[in-house]
């Protein structure tokens, strides 16, 4: 364009950036953002909603492990009355089944859905045990404590530094 000519258009960049038009630009952009937000709420989404892990399941799993371990330790000669506490590192982890469709240039991976719209669980990993504490009548005897430590190591696949055996207070 030549110096004397000015483009006569409604939406030129220079005219939008002038001070008096900045307010108009802000209003137009705000209205466009609100329309996009409303449209996103109205359109259905195909996202798979993962089930919320209930802490009751995790607690029940931990309590079951503690009870089984307590019953087994009480059978060790010299252990006596036993209380067991286990700590879990993380919650239950679910891996969902996926369906992969591949083309020449791209591939698409989607979750396999059941009739009720929930995702098909392929594998469920139980919480990992990260520590165990055992309090028993015979915990002060080094031989009994060593047997209990070995038992817990073998059952829970824990290193010895994550297992504590102590004598019950009399």
UniProtKB/TrEMBL annotation:
Keywords: Coiled coil, Membrane, Transmembrane, Transmembrane helix. The chain crosses the membrane at residues 25-43. Residues 55-82 form a coiled coil. This is Stage III sporulation protein AG.
């Amino acid at each position: 364009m030549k110096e004397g000519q000015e483009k006569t258009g409604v939406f030129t960049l220079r005219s939008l950036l002038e001070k008096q038009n900045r307010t108009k630009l802000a209003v137009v952009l705000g209205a466009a953002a609100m329309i996009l937000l409303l449209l996103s709420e109205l359109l259905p989404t195909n996202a798979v909603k993962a089930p919320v892990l209930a802490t009751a399941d995790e607690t029940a799993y931990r309590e079951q492990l503690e009870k089984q371990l307590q019953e087994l330790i009480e059978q060790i000669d010299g252990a006596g009355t036993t209380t067991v506490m286990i700590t879990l590192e993380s919650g239950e982890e679910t891996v969902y089944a996926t369906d992969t469709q591949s083309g020449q240039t791209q591939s698409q991976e989607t979750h396999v859905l059941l009739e009720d719209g929930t995702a098909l669980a392929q594998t469920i990993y139980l919480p990992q045990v990260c520590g165990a504490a055992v309090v028993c009548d015979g915990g002060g005897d080094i031989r009994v404590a060593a047997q209990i430590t070995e038992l817990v190591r073998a059952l829970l696949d824990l290193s010895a530094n994550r297992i504590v055996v102590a004598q019950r207070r009399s």
